[in-house]
Write a structure and sequence with these properties.
The complex is a heterodimer. Chain A is an alpha/beta fold. Chain A contains ten helices and 15 strands. Helices cover 38% and strands 19% of the residues of chain A. In chain A, the strands form four sheets. Chain A has a six-stranded parallel beta sheet, with helices on both faces. In chain A, strands 8-6-7-15 form a four-stranded parallel beta sheet, with helices on both faces. Chain B is mainly alpha-helical. Helices cover 67% and strands 5% of the residues of chain B. In chain B, helix 1 packs antiparallel against helix 15 (338-360) and helix 14 packs antiparallel against helix 15. Classes of the chains: A alpha/beta, B mainly alpha.
Chain lengths: 369, 386
């Protein structure tokens, strides 16, 4: 009997302790009445080391600059479609007034129309309505510069690029990477592998492995995780990242990456929304805005390469250099953009930045996936 | 003291209520420890979870959106599992149903005519798509004794790739190819208006729309119940599940039964796929970050198990889990990691399933009478010398 009593006593004590703990934790909620509520929705984890993390850095910047005047939150790993719609519904119920959706395909005009009191902004897309704006930036410029770093680092002139989806955004970045590599290393080729996902560390690593096996001596990417870089580090291959400074994942292999400073744009838009001057529009940030830039160089970029990259960057800033200016040839050697013609962002169908569905000369692989 | 788990000879009525309720209470206590350890208030967390899932304005509207596919997937799993035929492929069968259902909607919807016709065509085509996909593991099992768990599971990945291919990597019939926006980011071709499934809107909680698919799911539950309870087919399938040998002696045609049950299971999942398109997305969703990321088919297996393969219980559980899923997205944020939401949902599901053992078994604690001679001593390993 004694033992049973002991057991009962322990159980009671345990539940009492639990109840005490429960109430002890009762005052942890932090609300901020009167603050302007802004939410970000990410397609991957907020700390993916790439795309979503760069957006979250932007969110933290807004929170830091505006302090208690704003209340920010994020929703991570949200599937496009019903789950996204659900998330918007719950944010609306919680009184959020502005939502940044950081992946295309998330917001439709119909959804924006359903919540006329919320200001929506969507990255990388083209759908515009009264309360739906779109934003992105000229990463092709900085991707070109990172391609130059890759070209200078390559001995054989055979490079590899790990790509997400065969869509114009990725195709244009792959082209910019190849053009940059060829600028630095005439005749360089870039072999591409598709992972069919924005964030899939296992597939990205496998893609990098297959590129290395095919003879690539520098790896680039247009995907969100640093998995390809970790593989490159293990093989001693130079690596160019994308969308976040991921040097800590591959300190020796890291060359550089084209990165975005979303915070600049976010701060401007949130301020406008708070002041009531927000207007829908299509923003395409540039190097001059500080929106796109190169991440700090790794040890594999020589001083000579740095100087040459800096020279081109300066020309980009003053408008005397544009990587997507003709003559541009496609994979088959056919002239696609005539000499002197500059590609527009939206106009020109397949010969526009947002419609590009063909690879430039020297890219090995199909732009169709 | 000796603890043993014994099969219950008799299952008291009260247990069927007490066990699930007890499991949930247990889950909330365990999860409370995790919450407190991560510096969250369990009470306000549970309150938020409940409000976001069921009572907050428009929460039911969102819960039904998740509950509808979960009900289809749960029923698809339950239909097969009842015969101990483990069709893990509801996920892929749903994709196929979405593909064929969309094709029918695009084809017949674009031709004008009265609305019920394109919708009926989508229902039939969706069921047929899921059915055919399910028959692949069905045939392999019936004729070649291939393990259907593996084949049906692996076919999910094939179906997912097919779905992505149709929208992202080809200019298929399902893909929107007109307009500049369509070239910027791949999208499915939108269904014509007369192929969009109507919903029934109730004026509660600021608007609650019950999609047509939810009615189909309930209808499927009724049919499934009738088939398994009242028909010879259902009886034979149940016998086959419990004892294949007895079924064989009784003259049950086993191959035919496997094929039929796989077909029913696949058809329900396929109908769920057609409902996804007709009720919600209104275009084939090939984005790997969309339908494929949610994994309704896998959650459906849990739904079926929690509902003990009873069709009506499955629908109820689908509703409750729909609320839980819906609430999870509301809860997560900078101060509440998405992973923690998953942990809590996992604890609840694990306890609910684990509690099941108590309704079929009982735990007996017997205390051995004190023995003067330690009979068990020789069996024990000698203590290592210090």
């Amino acid at each position: 009997m004694k033992r049973r009593k002991l057991a009962l006593g322990t159980l009671l004590l345990a539940s009492a302790a639990m109840a005490a703990l429960v109430f002890a934790g009762a005052s942890s909620g932090r609300t901020n009445a009167g603050a302007f509520k802004v939410a970000w929705i990410y397609v991957g984890p907020h700390n993916d080391g790439g795309w979503s993390q760069a957006h979250d850095d932007g969110r933290l910047y807004v929170q830091k600059m505006l302090g208690s005047k704003v209340q920010t939150t994020y929703k991570e790993n949200i599937a496009v479609g019903q789950q996204f719609n659900q998330t918007v519904a719950s944010l609306s119920a919680q009184g959020y007034k502005m939502i940044f959706a950081t992946s295309y395909g998330m917001i439709t005009k119909q959804l924006a129309a359903k919540y006329p009191n919320i200001l929506f902004e969507q990255a990388t897309g083209t759908d515009l309505s009264k309360n739906l704006a779109e934003y992105f930036g000229r990463a092709e410029d900085t991707v070109f510069l990172s391609g130059m770093a890759a070209g200078y680092a390559s001995k054989t002139g055979k490079l590899g690029d790990v790509l997400a989806f065969p869509i114009p955004e990725v195709v244009r970045h792959a082209n910019a990477f190849a053009l940059g590599a060829q600028y630095a290393h005439p005749g360089a080729t870039v072999q591409v592998v598709w992972t069919h996902s924005w964030y899939n560390p296992a597939a990205e690593k496998k893609a990098a492995e297959s590129l290395a096996a095919a003879g690539a001596d520098v790896i680039g990417q247009n995907v969100d995780s640093p998995a390809a870089g970790q593989f490159a580090e293990s093989k001693g291959l130079p690596w160019v990242g994308y969308d976040s400074d991921a040097s800590k994942f591959a300190p020796k292999s890291w060359l550089t990456a084209s990165v975005y400073d979303w915070g600049i744009y976010y701060l401007k838009r949130v301020k406008a929304a708070m002041a009531g001057t927000w207007k829908s529009g299509f923003y395409y940030g540039t190097i001059n805005d500080g929106f796109t830039k190169l991440a700090p160089y790794g040890p594999g970029v020589t001083a000579a390469a740095k100087a040459k990259i800096a020279a081109v960057e300066k020309k980009m800033e003053n408008g005397s250099f544009y990587e997507f200016q003709g003559p541009l040839y496609d994979q088959s050697g056919k002239l696609r953009v005539a000499k002197g013609v500059k590609m527009d962002v939206l106009k020109g169908g397949a010969n526009s930045l947002y419609g590009m569905n063909w690879f430039v000369k020297g890219v090995i692989g199909s732009p169709k996936g | 003291m000796r603890i043993s788990v014994e099969q219950r000879l008799r299952r008291p009525r009260w247990l069927t209520v007490a066990v699930p309720v007890g499991s949930i209470v247990f889950a909330f206590l365990v999860a409370a420890v995790v919450l407190v350890a991560t510096r969250h208030n369990p009470i306000s967390t549970y309150k938020q979870l409940f409000e976001a899932g069921f009572t907050q304005n428009q929460s039911l509207d969102q819960t039904v959106v998740v509950a509808t596919p979960l009900a289809f997937m749960g029923l698809a799993a339950a239909a097969a599992f009842r015969m101990k035929l483990y069709n893990i492929g509801a996920e892929g069968q749903m994709y196929l149903g979405a593909i064929t259902g969309t094709a029918a909607g695009l084809y017949f919807g674009g031709r004008g005519g009265p609305a019920p016709f394109p919708i009926a065509a989508m229902v039939v085509a969706g069921m047929f798509g899921g059915l055919l996909w399910a028959l692949i593991p069905g045939i392999l099992r019936a004729f070649f004794r291939t393990n259907e768990i593996l084949t049906s599971l692996l076919l999910n990945y094939v179906a997912g790739l097919l779905l992505t291919y149709l929208i992202f990597e080809s200019e298929s019939y399902w893909r929107q190819t007109k307009g500049f926006n369509a070239t910027v980011f791949p999208k499915g071709k939108p269904l014509p208006h007369n192929a969009i499934w109507p919903g029934w809107t109730l004026h509660v909680q600021g608007g609650l729309t019950i999609p047509l698919g939810a009615f189909f799911a309930v209808g499927a539950a009724v049919l499934l119940w009738v088939v398994y309870r009242l028909t010879r087919f259902g009886f034979e399938a149940t016998v086959l599940g419990d004892s294949p040998r007895a079924a064989r002696y009784a003259g049950v045609r086993i191959r035919r039964k496997i094929l039929a049950v796989m077909a029913i299971s696949g058809a329900i999942a396929g109908l769920g796929g057609a409902s996804q398109v007709g009720d919600f997305s209104h275009a084939l969703d090939g984005d790997p970050n969309g339908l494929q990321k949610v994994g309704y088919g896998y959650t459906g297996i849990v739904v079926a198990a929690l509902g003990r393969y009873n069709p009506f219980a499955v629908v109820l559980i689908a509703f409750l889990l729909g609320g839980l899923e819906n609430a999870g997205n509301t809860l997560q944020g900078p101060s509440f990691p998405a992973g923690l939401v998953g942990v809590i949902q996992g604890i609840i599901l694990f306890s609910a399933l684990g509690g099941e053992i108590l309704s079929r078994h009982r735990i007996r604690i017997t205390r051995k009478p004190k023995q003067t001679v330690p009979a068990a001593a020789p069996a024990r390993a000698p203590e290592p010398a210090a």
